[in-house]
Amino acid sequence: MSPQDDQPASVAASTNPTASESASARKVSRTEVRGRVWKQLPLLLGLVVLWGVLWGQFSWLNILTGFLVAIAVTRVLYLPPADISGRLNLWYSLVFIAHFIADVTVASFTVAFQALNPRPIPTSSVIAVQLRTRSDFVMTLDAIAMSLVPGSIVVEVDRERAILYFHTFDTTTAAAVEAMRAKVLVVEARIVRAIGSKDDLARIHETEATR
Amino acid sequence: MILDSILDILTGVFLLLGGFLSVAAGVGLLRFPDAIARLHATTKPQILGLAFVLLAIALQERQLSTILLLIFLLIFQMITAPVSAHMIARAGYRGGIIAPHSLLVDELEQAIDAAPEFDDTEPGSE
User: Fold this and answer.
1) A115/B28 touch (CB, cutoff 8 Å), yes or no
2) Is residue A150 within 8 angstroms of chain B, CB to CB?
3) How many angstroms separate the CA atoms of A62 and A149, rounded?
4) Are the C-beta atoms of residues A152 and A168 closer than 8 Å to each other?
C-alpha cells in the first residue's frame, strides 16, 4: 500500500542474517503500514470529495478517478504522517470551533476599527509562549488558530522546546502582553481537550490545577 | 416570497460587512508602520471578509455542490493564509524590517541573546 510495504522488508531480508529476524521486521512494518493507511483514509476521502466538487458532480466514474488521483497525489507528494493522537472529543471540538468563530469575528472588527481609527497606531510586541503540549500537530493547530485570529502572527517556532513566538498587535501594556499569553494557552487547552493525547490532557489539567 | 426577500437582505448585509472589512484591510495596509503590523491588517480581517462574501453567495445559490465548493474555498484560504503570513513575518523579523520603537517587549530577541553561541562545527548543522 505504501513504499514501506515491500521494499524495506525485502532489503531487510537480504541483509539480515537470520530468517526469523527479517520475518519479524516484516510483520512490524505491515502493522505500521496498516495504521498509516488507516490514518491517511480521512485525507484520501477529503481529496475524493474535493475532486468531485471540482468536477461539479459525484458519478461513479468521478469517485473512481478521484480515488486514483488521490492515491497518486499522496504517493508522489509524500509527506511524513502527522502524529495524530487518534482521540477525538466531539463536544470539545464543537466548543473549540464555536470559540474560534467568535474570536475571529470579534478580533477582525477590532483590528478593522483600529485601522480606521485616526489615533496613532498602538505599539506591538513579540512574545514567547511556552506551550504544554508535546504534539507537533496540536502546536501547528494552535499556531494556525492564533494566526487566523487577528492581532497575533507567528514569527518564529521553537519546535524542540514547544515555544511559539508571536508578533501581537495592540499590546501597549505588560498586562496586555500577559493577557495575550494566557489567550494562546487557553486556545491550546481547547485544542488538546478536543483532539489531544491523554498525556497532553493530563499536563493541561496539572498546570491549570496549580495555577 | 418573504423568505426570498429575507435572504436577499441578509445577502446584502453580508456583502456590505465583507466589503467593510476589505476596505479596513486596505486602510490598515497604508497606515500600519511595518510589514508585520500590516500583516495583521491584511491577512486577518480578510478571512472574515471572504467568509461573509462566501456566505452571501451560499444564500443566493442554495445548492449542495456550490456550498461544498465554497466550504473548500474557505478551508484552503484558512490553511494557506497563516502559512504565508508566517513566512513573511519570519523573513521580516530576520530581515530586521520592524519599525523602530514599535515594540513594547521583544522576547524573541531576549531568547536569541540568551541562547548559547551557535557552533557551526557541529555535524549536520547546515
Assistant:
1) yes
2) yes
3) 37
4) yes
Contact between A113 and A119 (Cβ < 8 Å): no
Residue in the block written with cell 442554495: B62
- H or E element in which residue B125 lies: none
Q: How many residues are given for chain B?
A: 126
Collapsing DSSP states into helix, strand and coil, what is residue A100?
helix
> How long is chain A?
211
Q: Of A49, A7, A117, whose CA–CA distance to B69 is shortest?
A: A49
Amino acid at B96: G
A57 touches chain B (CB under 8 A): yes
- Torsions phi, psi for A157 (to 5 deg): -125, 125
Q: What would the grid cell of residue B98 be?
A: 520592524
Report pLDDT digits (tens) over A151-208.
Answer: 788 888 888 888 888 888 877 777 888 888 888 888 888 888 888 888 888 888 877 7
Q: What is the ipTM of this complex?
A: 0.75
**Run of H or E residues at A156:** strand A152-158
The pTM for the full model equals: 0.72
Give how far B51 is from chain A: nearest CA, Å: 10
Using DSSP, state whether A151 is helix, strand or coil.
Answer: coil
Chain B contact for A125 (CB, 8 A cutoff)? yes
Q: How far is B52 from chain A (nearest CA, A)?
A: 10
- The distance of B2 to chain A (nearest Cα, Å) reads 28
What residue spans define the domains of chain A?
A: 3-76, 90-210
Residue among A43, A45, A55, A108 with most chain B CBs within 10 A, to mutate? A108
To which residue does cell 471572504 refer? Answer: B50
Please report the residues numbered 58 through 117 in chain B whose beta carbons come closer than 8 angstroms to any beta carbon of chain A.
65, 68-69, 72, 78-79, 81-82, 85-86, 89-90, 93, 101-111
Domain ranges of chain B: 2-115
Closest CA to B76 of A76, A50, A84, A78: A50
Q: Which residue has the cell 523573513?
A: B91
